[in-house]
Specification:
The chain is of the alpha+beta class. It is 16% helix and 38% strand. It has 5 helices and 16 strands. The chain has helices spanning 106-112, 126-131, 143-157, 171-177, 182-194; strands at 2-20, 23-25, 35-45, 48-54, 60-66, 70-83, 159-160, 179-180, 200-207, 226-233, 237-242, 247-248, 253-259, 268-269, 272-273, 279-290. The strands form 4 sheets. Strands 1, 3, 6, 15 and 16 form a 5-stranded antiparallel beta sheet that branches. A 5-stranded antiparallel beta sheet has the order 12-11-10-9-13, covered by helices on one side. It has a 4-stranded antiparallel beta sheet with strand order 4-5-2-14, with no helix packed on it. Strand 10 (226-233) and strand 11 (237-242) form a beta hairpin. The radius of gyration is 20 Å and the shape is globular. The termini are close together.
């Protein structure tokens, strides 16, 4: 068991006072058998009226509405939680799902729905051509072996680059560029495993390595929100894969939001009334400490 404290600060700056429209936040982690929230906090300046709701995926959503204009808009979200990660050794798949290919039961397929469908254009099936060789091992390829090989290959074959641009690259763009951010790699892996008939969804949250806190090196993607993938495996449920770091299982990962597509799990989104040149810039700082 690990006790974590996370403080996530986002600040937007403007050349003159602007009026803010509603801002949508996904900042509260998902309570589960492996995570127990002990304390949460949310501070917003200028003052805002905040209402909470659950989206279609069960994520906690905060909507902030503003009355007064300002030259700076800041959000400070914090929480303290107990983390009880289960390692890969604890996974137990149904016998029929141990090897690829397999078919989900009709009952599961009714709920998995579009998480098994491809979401991005790939007319030449390039993602398929990249992914299929992992499942063409001699004999019956074990499902977890194939997924781990894909997870490691993305880390090894592509270069990580932190991007501040809104949105994600398409999987074909990631193939062409050979580089991407954590969210680009997550989307690429989702499409790759979907090409093998598996259900996958996008996860946004935080990454930590308690053995390397304060060190100059360690897992890639810390210091901001992080993105990874969950693959649904009968008997084990939704299993975490972080292709940015080739991590398997949820040991270093704190889930905040899960979604069918990356566009549905944006940590913070909103707008303002004013000219484009009024926007000066933004800064993001994430601090994760381990007791």
């Amino acid at each position: 068991m690990t006790v974590l404290t996370v403080e996530h600060t986002t600040v937007y700056r403007y050349a003159q006072p602007v009026q803010f429209q509603d801002h949508r936040m996904m900042c509260r982690p998902r309570d589960s058998h492996d995570l127990r929230l002990m304390e949460t906090g949310l501070s917003i300046s200028p003052a805002a009226n905040v209402r909470w709701l659950h989206d279609v995926f069960g994520n906690s959503i905060a909507i902030a509405s503003f009355a007064e204009p300002a030259m700076e808009l800041s959000f400070v979200s914090s929480f303290r939680a107990e983390h009880f990660p289960s390692g890969p050794v604890n996974l137990s798949l149904e016998e029929f799902a141990r090897f690829l290919p397999f078919t989900y039961s009709s009952q599961e397929m009714a709920d998995l729905g579009r998480t098994t469908e491809r979401h991005y254009p790939d007319p030449d099936r390039r993602v398929d051509l990249w992914a299929k060789p992992f499942a063409r091992q001699e004999g019956d390829p074990e499902t977890l072996d194939v997924l781990n090989a894909i997870n490691v290959a993305i880390r090894d074959q592509f270069s990580y680059a932190r991007r501040e641009e809104v949105g994600v690259q398409t999987p074909v763009e990631t193939l062409d560029k050979g580089t991407g951010s954590c969210r680009d790699f997550a989307v690429f892996m989702m499409e790759a495993v979907r090409s093998l008939g598996l259900a996958a969804r996008f996860v946004s949250g935080y990454l930590y390595d308690q053995n390397l806190m304060g060190a100059d090196a360690g897992v890639v993607g810390g210091g901001a929100t992080h993105a990874w993938v969950q693959v649904y495996l009968p008997g084990a449920g939704w299993v975490e894969f972080d292709p940015t770091n080739a991590l398997f299982g949820g040991h270093n990962l704190i889930r905040v939001a899960v979604a069918r597509d990356a566009s549905q799990a944006v940590p913070l989104a909103g707008s303002y009334n004013g000219a484009p040149e009024d926007y000066v810039g933004m800064s993001v700082d994430v601090k994760v400490t381990v007791a």
